[in-house]
Design a protein that fits this description.
alpha/beta; UDP-N-acetylmuramoyl-L-alanine:D-glutamate ligase; 2 domains; 10-stranded mixed sheet; 18 strands
């Protein structure tokens, strides 16, 4: 699913209106129907949860008035406001008088667009109408904001440029000031005040939403930490914009969705055997740090590859024999990673890093591993989906990345087609080391910017924890490193970003905050390595691994709860579609 810029989204709307053909008002109605359905579905799930999993008890029936929400929709003067007004009408039609639906127009009604005005006139009499003017809601609105209130933010959409002006800026501040009194805040398409692409400078007046329902595409700002934290939980509804226009649109960003995953997955042949699906080697763990080895090995075993060998300190071999009897154990004579197994050429992928530590002998062993791969023992991005023993993939994570950061001469040994999987701290160390050592330069950063990315470039590195000054600068640096290494970089976090050497960035749409627990990354490392052994190239292995990892996390959260789930629960719920 492509991620388009604000201008491209506007053009997609116009192209759909002209070529389907469909009127602007009818397209707005289509969007409103999808938005209202999403809101109603979520409310039904929440109500069922309050009612003890849907089993309506007497206590639940008595408390029903406290369980159902009221809706207060803040609407602007343009298309986003028109969407909000149409959603208000559909909610009123769905619930009648059983739930209060109110609309607050931000500014005087004389300034509304044609479509917005048409939807205002369509509102049924049951919908209460208010006007926001000079910092307050005009009229009697006692009790408008309470613990049952769901605020729906439909003031500004994808057309925001620069600072938000009055009266919207005051309305944004009002919404943020009363949100703690309310059940939640839902933003339509974008939290009002947020640009579709991050801009330089500090955030201005953004609505701080608990949830954002994007229309047709997730917007880039929603997927990046600095701005995305204002969006809350993100979902996307589709309204049938012109497929041909979207296909032809040029974008450096894509969202990974189920359709992409179905396209990438390869079927297993009826007459396959373990030898036709590759052999993964996982180098992980040290004495006292065997949990990382257990988790990464378990994920590799669930990937679909034929064989998994794990290289661990010999004195810890019983840990793997007990937890994963399907794995082959290769014993290192030291208490840490100090040497390579014999005949490395038999493995179709190698993962190194989880739980290794950074002892001197581990640094030397990692150098030897990189020397093996840089000696022509791998090729890049040439896989068909079937196991080809002459093509090998190296996956680097955790302490392997930290050792490389501490010894930047190793950057030049990383083979083309490798997959690096840093979390944000590891990424900061990698980039700071690559910049300080001259492995990447300001010129590399400029060259890494795709033609479609109209962004301001700074080359200075502030003296802070991170070597970037905002999320767009971070993306530029990651692109530069990916291009210089000819490798895939997986930046772990919410909406994990997968950057490939041509500069394209993929953002993952599965996963949840409950996955922010120790060991989650070790599982991803093993899963990507197993998929690479199975026969997928580096790009496909990274995309599939990240998506499937997030999907397993979503299943774990559903079963265990986000607070109580842990990394082993993610491992239990890995399923290859």
């Amino acid at each position: 699913m492509k991620i388009l810029t604000g201008e491209d989204i506007r053009q997609a709307d116009l192209h759909t209106i002209e070529n389907e053909p469909v009127s602007s008002l009818d397209l707005m109605e289509r969007a409103a129907a999808a938005l209202a359905e999403e809101i109603i579905t979520e409310d039904s799930i929440e109500y069922a949860y309050i009612c003890e999993g849907g089993k309506a008890s007497r206590a639940c029936q008595c408390a029903e008035a406290d369980a159902v929400p009221d809706y207060v929709i803040f609407v602007g003067k343009g298309n986003n406001g028109g969407d909000g007004l149409a959603v208000a009408r559909l909610l009123a039609r769905k619930y009648g008088t059983s739930r209060r639906v109110s609309v607050v127009t931000v500014g005087y009604e004389s300034r509304l667009s044609e479509e917005c005005r048409a939807n205002l006139e369509r509102l049924p009499s049951s919908v209460r109408k208010y006007v926001f003017h000079e910092g307050k809601v005009l009229g009697s609105y006692g009790g408008l904001f309470n613990r049952n209130t769901v605020i729906i933010d439909a003031m500004l959409g994808t057309g925001v440029r620069g600072a938000v002006k009055e009266p919207v800026s005051s309305a944004v501040r009002l919404v943020n000031s009363v949100s703690s009194l309310c059940r939640k805040v839902i933003s339509i398409d974008m939290p009002s005040g947020m640009p579709t692409e991050p801009e330089d400078g500090h955030p201005c007046d953004f609505v701080a939403a608990d949830r954002t329902i994007a229309i047709e595409f997730p917007k880039l700002s929603l997927l990046l930490p600095e701005s995305g934290k204002y969006a809350g939980r993100l979902s996307v509804v589709h309204i049938g914009l012109d497929r041909d226009f979207i296909k032809e649109a040029v974008s450096g960003y894509e969202a990974v969705d189920a359709d992409m995953i179905r396209f990438l997955l390869k079927p297993r042949n009826e007459f396959d055997n373990k030898g036709t699906h590759g052999h993964a080697l996982v180098i992980a763990g040290s004495c006292g740090m065997m949990g990382a080895a257990v988790l990464s090995t378990g994920a590799a075993l669930k990937s679909g590859c034929g064989l998994v060998t794990v290289r661990i300190p010999g004195q810890e071999r019983q840990v793997i024999h007990i937890t994963h009897p399907s794995a082959i154990v290769s014993c290192d004579p030291s208490s840490v990673f100090s040497s390579l197994p014999d005949n490395l050429s038999r493995y179709s992928s190698v993962a190194a890093g989880p739980g290794l530590g950074q002892k001197h002998e581990s640094v030397q062993a990692l150098g030897a591993l990189l020397d093996f791969f840089s000696g022509g023992n791998c090729r890049t991005f040439a896989r068909t989906g079937a196991f080809e023993p002459h093509i090998k993939t190296l996956v680097l994570d955790a302490d392997a990345l930290n050792m490389i950061s501490a010894h930047p001469d190793m950057f030049r040994k990383i083979p083309a087609g490798a997959v690096l999987t840093p979390h944000i701290g590891e990424l900061a160390r990698l980039l700071r080391s690559a910049l300080a050592s001259g492995f990447i330069s300001a010129g590399d950063v400029t060259e890494s910017i795709p033609a479609d990315a109209a962004v301001h470039v700074r080359h200075d590195i502030p003296g802070s924890l991170y070597p970037w000054h905002n999320d767009m600068h971070k993306i530029m640096l990651v692109r530069a490193l990916s291009r210089k290494l000819s490798s895939v970089i997986v930046v772990k976090g919410a909406h994990t970003m997968i950057c490939i050497p041509d500069g394209k960035c993929f953002f993952n749409m599965t996963g949840n905050p409950g996955m922010a627990k120790g060991g989650s990354g070790d599982i991803l490392t093993g899963l990507i390595a197993g998929l690479a052994a199975r026969g997928y190239d580096s790009i496909a292995s990274a995309i599939l691994g990240v998506w499937l990892h997030g999907r397993a996390g979503d299943r774990a959260a559903s079963e265990k709860g986000m607070e109580s789930m842990n990394a082993s629960d993610i491992l239990d719920f890995i399923r290859i579609m």
